Amino acid sequence: MARFSFLPTLILASRALAATVTVNWDATWVNAAPDGFARPVIGINGAWPCPTLEANTGDTIVLTLNNLLGNETTGLHFHGIDQVQTTWMDGPSGVTQCPVPPGSSITYTFVANAPGTYWYHSHNMGQYPDGLRGPLIVHDPNDPYAGKYDEEIVLTVSDWYHDQSITLVQNMLESTNTQFLPPFPDGIIVNEGLGANITFANNKTYRFRVISFAAFASVMLHFDSHTMQVIMTDASYVQQSQAYQLRIAPAQRYDVLISGISRDHRNYPFLLSLDINRDFANDPPQAVVWPHNATGYLVMDPNGAFPQDTVNLWQPVNDVSFKPLDGVAAYGPVAQTITLNFDFCTDVNGLPRACFNGQTYIPQKVPTLYSVATTGENNTNPAVYGDVNPFILTTGSVVNVVVNNLDSAIHPFHMHGHQFQVLDRPGSNTGSWSGHNRTFPASPMRRDTISVNPNSYAVLRIQITNPGVFLFHCHIEWHVEMGLTATFIQSPEKLRNVSFPQDHIDNCIKQGIPYQGNAAGNTQNVLDTSDFVTVPPTTYTGALYSAATDAPVARAARLRPRRVRHHL
Ligand SMILES: *[C@@H]1O[C@H](CO)[C@@H](O)[C@H](O)[C@H]1NC(C)=O
Ligand SMILES: *[C@@H]1O[C@H](CO)[C@@H](O)[C@H](O)[C@H]1NC(C)=O
Ligand SMILES: *[C@@H]1O[C@H](CO)[C@@H](O)[C@H](O)[C@H]1NC(C)=O
Ligand SMILES: *[C@@H]1O[C@H](CO)[C@@H](O)[C@H](O)[C@H]1NC(C)=O
Ligand SMILES: *[C@@H]1O[C@H](CO)[C@@H](O)[C@H](O)[C@H]1NC(C)=O
Ligand SMILES: *[C@@H]1O[C@H](CO)[C@@H](O)[C@H](O)[C@H]1NC(C)=O
Ligand SMILES: *[C@@H]1O[C@H](CO)[C@@H](O)[C@H](O)[C@H]1NC(C)=O
Ligand SMILES: [Cu+2]
């Protein structure tokens, strides 16, 4: 069933005072058949698709998640929200919190500080492809495009799997998978169903908020006879730019204006096509080599014809060519360049993994943020965090993040806590970044997820103004499970002894997960790395859920029954 969101923008614009948006959600298993095939999915309050979370800029969201799954841990991440001064509300398990065990709850309290189109999803054990995801819309009372559109429509798109994530990941992490292949989806869904019929009037302009919930494939989007006017990339306004076609990578969002054209008596199809090409840029006409299509309609005449969309030109707009609406210049001067060379790799047990600089991400015993808070002066030393690809970023500095994609496929990289500037993202087979700044725009576009072409690179830039632990990872969820993650530890000196909400800590205690000390929970000698996890798990039962019941971890926690300190 299509789910539309029609919002009276005039009413929202007149609301001046920041409000509190309080929701209480139960995560439960429900059965659903979004593409006609019934399977268990994770829903909210007994229903699926999961609800749309809405707020106005400046509102505080207070979201309590009750884990009623019975058999899996869970958690929520708010994709694209910077979590200013609230890094512990970011959500990834093992990073800024312990997973929420069955029968427990967690409350996320954060300010929806910037307007835009976001989404929330589980950031725990590869769980969001099992359905735990939904739109998060932060409306802008000072919308620079106010008056240019009449209604809003949320359009979500995703690849879809008939098997559950745990099974898919188990099958992927086999030594026989020498091609490092991720699981391939069974189909495409739109608004968590098979297509969408959107009532359209030829006098009106609509703001589409397009969100990809995908785990693997990117999506080509084209509207018959209607040009898209892009106004936002992820949650950053851009100068209005025309687009014939968009290529939307997993986790990306585009806000586009579409005006009903002044012809009538027929309905206009739009096509969403899964793209799993290894190299899009070099081969546009064959972009969809293994297509799964979904067709939706702009319905202007319910009794008229419903034709199929035909796309002859596979030429999505280059998002890096957009201009930020606020004209913010490239940050500088650059104090530090972090270079991440990504390639697939094989671990000591011969299992397929993904690596940055030859190192795969290995979850540690203590969530990284809790180590930052409890290792004192030593928290600026990456050695206390273990094999989580830790990088220490200095307060107030400007940092280049260079991703050299040594793989022969395109990958979408996401940074938590930032709308980064994209200084350069050349075409396929350009090689690694040479260090030259020749092509950098004076005012680069910003977003939070960027596709990096095969055998090529991206140069991203951020300012370190928000203390916290923020991940940088490929948003192909299967590659996260292969270890394609780095950990940016920002302003650690400002996080010493910071206190965390008791319900977050209680979730650690319930599972015997240590929440103090270095990566191994050593509070006495934080430079002692002897109990760090240095080998990726050989069996996959769902990330930290298995670690929680692991005897050594439980024993370590019993030896350290103290609670976290509660002064700031
Ligand atoms: C948990 O229960 C659901 C619903 O019965 C099931 O589909 C799912 O596979 C179970 N998860 C695990 C890890 O056993
Ligand atoms: C949209 O409407 C057409 C014509 O009535 C119908 O064939 C199609 O199934 C509808 N699609 C959805 C997703 O409801
Ligand atoms: C378009 O707007 C005009 C003038 O407001 C109105 O008369 C007409 O009915 C509208 N047409 C549609 C399809 O809404
Ligand atoms: C998907 O749509 C494209 C463009 O119209 C077409 O070339 C392709 O054959 C379609 N694929 C399927 C499986 O229908
Ligand atoms: C590129 O810019 C960085 C940061 O401003 C600077 O440190 C570096 O020297 C520049 N490289 C070249 C080759 O100009
Ligand atoms: C942090 O707490 C420890 C132990 O209570 C104390 O020794 C230290 O001075 C505190 N550090 C800061 C920066 O407050
Ligand atoms: C840092 O770790 C070393 C080794 O454990 C220890 O000697 C030192 O006291 C620690 N410093 C602080 C400030 O905790
Ligand atoms: Cu990837």
From TrEMBL:
<keyword id="KW-0732">Signal</keyword>
<dbReference type="InterPro" id="IPR008972">
    <property type="entry name" value="Cupredoxin"/>
</dbReference>
<dbReference type="Pfam" id="PF00394">
    <property type="entry name" value="Cu-oxidase"/>
</dbReference>
<keyword id="KW-0560">Oxidoreductase</keyword>
<feature type="signal peptide">
    <location>
        <begin position="1"/>
        <end position="18"/>
    </location>
</feature>
<dbReference type="InterPro" id="IPR045087">
    <property type="entry name" value="Cu-oxidase_fam"/>
</dbReference>
<dbReference type="InterPro" id="IPR002355">
    <property type="entry name" value="Cu_oxidase_Cu_BS"/>
</dbReference>
<dbReference type="InterPro" id="IPR001117">
    <property type="entry name" value="Cu-oxidase_2nd"/>
</dbReference>
<dbReference type="InterPro" id="IPR011707">
    <property type="entry name" value="Cu-oxidase-like_N"/>
</dbReference>
<feature type="domain" description="Plastocyanin-like">
    <location>
        <begin position="361"/>
        <end position="493"/>
    </location>
</feature>
<dbReference type="Pfam" id="PF07731">
    <property type="entry name" value="Cu-oxidase_2"/>
</dbReference>
<keyword id="KW-0479">Metal-binding</keyword>
<dbReference type="InterPro" id="IPR033138">
    <property type="entry name" value="Cu_oxidase_CS"/>
</dbReference>
<dbReference type="InterPro" id="IPR011706">
    <property type="entry name" value="Cu-oxidase_C"/>
</dbReference>
<feature type="domain" description="Plastocyanin-like">
    <location>
        <begin position="27"/>
        <end position="142"/>
    </location>
</feature>
<keyword id="KW-0186">Copper</keyword>
<comment type="similarity">
    <text>Belongs to the multicopper oxidase family.</text>
</comment>
<protein>
    <submittedName>
        <fullName>Uncharacterized protein</fullName>
    </submittedName>
</protein>
<feature type="domain" description="Plastocyanin-like">
    <location>
        <begin position="151"/>
        <end position="273"/>
    </location>
</feature>
<dbReference type="InterPro" id="IPR044130">
    <property type="entry name" value="CuRO_2_Fet3-like"/>
</dbReference>
<dbReference type="Pfam" id="PF07732">
    <property type="entry name" value="Cu-oxidase_3"/>
</dbReference>
